[in-house]
Amino acid sequence: MMLFGKISQPLCGLKKLPWSCDSRYFWGWLNTVFNKVDYERIRAVGPDRAASEWLLRCGATVRYHGQEKWQKDYNHLPTGPLYKYKIQAIDATDSCIMSIGFDHMEGLEHVEKIRFCKCHYIEDDCLQRLGQLEKLRESLLEMEIISCGNITDKGVIALRHFRNLKYLLLSDLPGVKEKENLVQVFKTTLPSLKLKLQQK
Predict the structure, then answer these.
(1) pLDDT band for position 148 (50/70/90)?
(2) CA 116 to chain centre
(3) What are phi and psi of 127, to 5 degrees?
(4) Rounded to an integer, what distance in angstroms lies between the CA atom of residue 139 and that of residue 145?
(5) Which of 7, 95, 161, 178 is the most buried (most CB within 10 A)?
(6) CA distances, 104 to each of 32, 74, 122 (Å)
(7) What percent of the chain has pLDDT over 70?
(8) Bridge partners of 144?
């Protein structure tokens, strides 16, 4: 895959442009391009490989079952039988993943941990979309959401659908206002969940 090679050459000329609102619009557009779902690619290589490509393209990292090493480099994703590499953990710290890309998560069956930290494009509809993915609802055991300013109570409430979730960390989320209500909701729906609510 030479995706970055094709994009990087025209990007070199951006250094000559004045930084302004136009540059912010450009990066928003580029992030949208990186998040676009290619359903043909998913069918061709399977959900784990396609999701890995999406996540790394957006600056996240993944770890596969049976491996300790985190995959960070898009150009060094492992090759071999498509069924061999199953995503077990996702660290989306400082990534540009956004809601339009979350269809990449459909079909993932082995993800046990997800970390969203300083994800500026993560919003409530991202968490709601995750809560609709039946296979992920079964496999996910741990989730951390830290310093994601667009997340509110509405998004966090959607996590009650993860019936096997054992640990949930919510930290530095200014949009989350009704913390006592969240505690009661999770006590009722996920009684075995260890919930940690932290301020910054």
Answers:
(1) very high
(2) 6
(3) -70, -35
(4) 18
(5) 95
(6) 14, 16, 15
(7) 83
(8) 115, 169
Contact criterion met (CB below 8 Å) for 186 and 157: no
Q: Which residue has the tokens 């996702």?
A: 90
| Per-residue pLDDT at 165 | 97
Classify residue 65 as exposed, middle or buried by CB count within 10 Å of its CB (0-12, 13-18, 19+): middle
Q: Which helix (H) or strand (E) holds 50?
A: helix 47-57
Centroid of chain to Cα 82:
21
> SS3 of 128, please?
helix
Look at the chain and count its residues: 200
Alpha-carbon distance of 108 to 102, in angstroms, equals: 11
State both tokens at 177. Answer: 């206002």
- CB atoms < 10 A from the CB of 103, how many? 19
Q: What is the pLDDT of residues 53-69, one digit of tens each?
A: 999 999 999 999 999 99
Give the model confidence (pLDDT) of 106-146 as tens digits: 999 999 999 999 999 999 999 999 999 999 999 999 999 99
